[in-house]
């Protein structure tokens, strides 16, 4: 098979499945599909979309994700965090479930998908490394808390507007009057049922069982006909693939930051799932190809009239747990969603919205772990402060959640630059093991009375060159007896033009003051830059040492 064809259609490299694999994939796929249907409807409502859009997003996009991705067992589709990002990004731009809201959500899917495809095509998958785990973790926990809080009124059967008015007036009776007690019973009952059987959820379709029970009760009691909040009538049939009408330039400008955040944050969720699956199955995956697969899934979702999708950590873990072996499991899940769209939309219409709110809350509570911040505080207080600040910024910025993670990114970048601009530069002496170590830390004598030996634990670049220069020149100025300076360059992995210029300046300036510069442990890649830039010609061979042991022996022997 031509390499070019395999590159653009990676699923052509899939091995031909045998009957055992297909049986395992069928069991896993149908299990996943039965859970995906009620979750998809719930996450559509979390995103502010019509309930049917959840089924559209759960139909073709998961299959596209698997076919063009690199990890065959990812459970893609609507997810809580991405849905919350959609709702937050569009808040204030339109009314939820309106035609304008749907149009903007579709374009969010197309734009975030295009960004992911571009990243993957340019092989820039490492861009996710610029989002530190501490920031993503803090953002995820804050977003999870917001998701729970946003769904509590619906789960408790509260009329949000009436409850807020009653609370503002401190009227307890009015608050109780705003409660739909039947809806509250559906919500709390579902919540209790799912929590009690949480440990069984990987073996039994408990979400589907809860959906069947609440749906039948809602139908039997005529809950919707009596004014109860239910999903309502859904259009039957398949989504129509269509390109949406163009927006104004101002709309695109408003959506672009949110699309970029959705593209990166949703991929971090896919990244964690793919890593877990890869370690369990011992199959390699490619982050650039996965970017393309996830991007195509988002675009397919947009063309289907739905919102951005992503890989679900919980559904991916379930897919692995129930024995899926290949990407064929996604096709069996597709059959479940297809059957729901064709035959089950009248039944889904009876589902209480309180039930759907509980379906959202239960898996999201797994993301809330205060111990995350405690562990961070013990490991790095600076990162813990950034994480806490990210969580607070996310809560303050709600519903515009993208500003929370952008604040965390900026703080992390600032801390990173601060660390790089303040490299660790120390005077070294000879340790008992014969190596050069920090004099102050190990209380070591100087290498020689007239020698200042220094080590910098960083690359010699435009960021670190000035601190090194100041450290050496200030010490020599304060200690007139110094006649030799040894720069132990073992930790220096790279050097740029500013680093070269600084080193040339140091050699010349110190030599004018009667101080000679020595180098030791220069790495090959740095040595090549020295040769090309003329640094090597400024120092006699006897002032350059291959190893620190050679430097110690020679400089001690020639001590004044």
UniProtKB/TrEMBL annotation:
Question: Which cell locations does it reside in?
Answer: Membrane
Superkingdom of the source? Bacteria
PROSITE patterns linked to this entry: STAS
Q: Which UniProt keywords apply?
A: Membrane, Transmembrane, Transmembrane helix
Alphabetical list of InterPro entries matching this protein: SLC26A/SulP_dom (IPR011547), SLC26A/SulP_fam (IPR001902), STAS_dom (IPR002645), STAS_dom_sf (IPR036513)
**What membrane topology does the UniProt entry give?**
Multi-pass membrane protein
Q: Choose any GO biological process term that the UniProt entry carries and state it.
A: transmembrane transport
Gene3D superfamilies, sorted: STAS domain (3.30.750.24)
Cellular component annotations (GO), alphabetically ordered: membrane
From the record, what ranges are coiled-coil? none
UniProt-listed Pfam families? STAS, Sulfate_transp
| Annotated TM spans | 40-61, 73-95, 101-122, 134-154, 174-197, 204-225, 255-274, 328-348, 354-373, 385-418
The identity of this protein, by name, is Putative sulfate transporter/MT1781
């Amino acid at each position: 098979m031509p390499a070019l064809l395999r590159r653009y259609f990676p699923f052509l490299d899939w091995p031909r499945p045998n009957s055992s694999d297909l049986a395992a994939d069928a069991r896993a796929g149908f299990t996943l599909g039965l859970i995906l249907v009620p979750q998809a409807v719930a996450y559509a409502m979390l995103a502010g979309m019509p309930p049917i859009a959840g089924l559209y997003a759960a139909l073709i996009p998961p299959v596209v994700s698997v076919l063009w991705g690199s990890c065959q067992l990812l459970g893609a589709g609507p997810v809580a965090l991405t849905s919350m990002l959609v709702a937050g990004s569009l808040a204030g731009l339109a009314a939820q479930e309106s035609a304008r809201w749907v149009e903007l959500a579709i374009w969010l899917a197309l734009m975030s998908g295009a960004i992911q495809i571009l990243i993957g095509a340019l092989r820039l998958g490492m861009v996710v490394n610029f989002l530190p785990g501490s920031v993503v973790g803090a953002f995820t926990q804050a977003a999870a808390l917001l998701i729970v809080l946003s769904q509590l009124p619906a789960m408790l059967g509260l009329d949000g507007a009436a409850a807020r008015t009653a609370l503002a007036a401190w009227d307890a009776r009015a608050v109780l009057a705003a409660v739909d007690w039947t809806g509250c019973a559906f919500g709390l009952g579902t919540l209790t049922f799912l929590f009690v059987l949480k440990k069984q959820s990987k073996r039994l379709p408990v979400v589907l069982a809860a959906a069947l029970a609440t749906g039948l009760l809602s139908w039997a009691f005529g809950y919707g006909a009596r004014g109860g909040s239910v999903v309502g009538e859904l259009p039957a049939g398949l989504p129509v693939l269509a390109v949406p009408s163009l927006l104004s330039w101002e709309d695109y400008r408003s959506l672009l930051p949110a699309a970029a955040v959705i593209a990166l944050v949703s991929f971090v969720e896919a990244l964690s799932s793919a890593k877990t699956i890869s370690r369990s199955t011992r199959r390699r995956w490619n982050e650039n190809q996965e970017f393309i697969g996830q991007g195509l899934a988002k675009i397919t979702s947009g063309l289907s009239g739905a919102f951005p999708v992503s890989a679900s950590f919980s559904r991916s873990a379930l897919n692995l747990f129930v024995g899926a072996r290949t990407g064929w499991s996604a096709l069996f899940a597709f059959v479940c969603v297809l059957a729901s769209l064709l035959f089950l939309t009248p039944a889904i219409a009876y589902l209480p919205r309180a039930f759907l709110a509980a379906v959202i809350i239960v898996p999201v509570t797994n993301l809330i772990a205060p111990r995350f911040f405690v562990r961070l505080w013990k490991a790095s207080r600076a990162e813990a402060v950034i994480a806490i600040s990210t969580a607070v910024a996310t809560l303050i910025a709600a519903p515009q959640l993208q500003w929370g993670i952008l604040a965390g990114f900026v703080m992390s970048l600032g801390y990173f630059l601060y660390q790089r601009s303040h490299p660790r530069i120390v005077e070294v002496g000879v340790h008992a093991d014969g190596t050069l170590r920090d004099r102050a830390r190990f209380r070591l004598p100087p290498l020689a009375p007239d020698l200042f030996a220094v080590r910098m634990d960083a690359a010699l670049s435009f960021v670190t060159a000035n601190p090194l220069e100041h450290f050496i020149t200030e010490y020599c100025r304060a200690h007139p007896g110094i006649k030799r300076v040894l720069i132990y360059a073992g930790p220096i992995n790279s050097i740029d033009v500013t680093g070269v210029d600084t080193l040339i300046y140091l050699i010349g300036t110190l030599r004018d003051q009667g101080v000679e510069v020595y180098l030791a442990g220069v790495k090959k890649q740095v040595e090549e830059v020295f040769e090309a830039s003329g640094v090597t010609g400024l120092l006699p061979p006897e002032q350059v040492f291959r190893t620190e042991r050679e430097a110690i022996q020679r400089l001690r022997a020639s001590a004044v």
